[in-house]
Amino acid sequence: MISYVVNAFGKRAHLPAVLAAIRSQRGLETYEIVIVDPASPDGVGAYAEAEAANDPRLRVLHVQDKGPGQAINAGLAVARFPLCHLLDGDDLLAPTATVTLLEDLNTHSADAVIAQGGFYTGAAPVFPADIPAPTWVVVPEEALRAMIRYAPSNMSGTLIRTDFARAFGGCDARVWVHDYSLSLRACCAGRVVLTDRPVWQGPAADESRIMLSQKRQMFHDFNAALAYLVSDHPEIPAAMQRLALNRATGRAVKWLRREARQSAPVAAFWRYGLSYLPPQVPLPVAPMLRATLAAFEATGKIRRP
Question: For 132-158, what is the mean pLDDT?
Answer without folding.
Answer: 97
